[in-house]
Write a structure and sequence with these properties.
The protein is mainly alpha-helical. The chain is about 60% helix and about 5% strand.
């Protein structure tokens, strides 16, 4: 069966969370990915599967609607998605807004200089 068919929808995990929790090597394996890739969360800790999941959610939160992100993150409730990922990047959003504002302010005088005068003067 192919993923995405009615018999096997893509939003249902192949392995239940309970089964994954019973596999003790799963955490070790995912943690070793961060160690091998030399991805550090801080000076003393390499990235875990949870850290990678959170980074994935934060990056996609800027590009998707909350309902779409909820599906990608496999949250059962939109409230979970909203509380963890939506509106969490206020500083980044503010920086982008200020940068765009400054670009627009820089372009405005040039645009005025290139427009013909409306009062008949050149």
């Amino acid at each position: 069966m192919r993923a995405g068919t009615q018999e096997h929808p893509t939003h249902e995990p192949l392995i239940s969370r309970a089964t994954l929790a019973e596999v003790p090597l799963a955490g070790l394996f995912s943690g070793s990915i961060g160690a091998q890739a030399k991805v550090r969360v801080d000076a003393n800790k390499t990235a875990s599967a949870h850290d990678l999941r959170r980074a994935f959610g934060e990056r996609w939160a800027a590009r998707l609607m909350p309902a779409q992100l909820m599906e990608l993150m496999r949250h059962e409730s939109i409230e979970t998605t909203l509380s963890y990922y939506v509106g969490r990047n206020a500083e980044r959003t503010a920086a982008i807004l200020w940068r765009e504002h400054e670009k627009a302010a820089d372009q405005e005088p040039r645009q005025r200089a290139n427009q013909p005068s409306t009062d008949g003067r050149f």
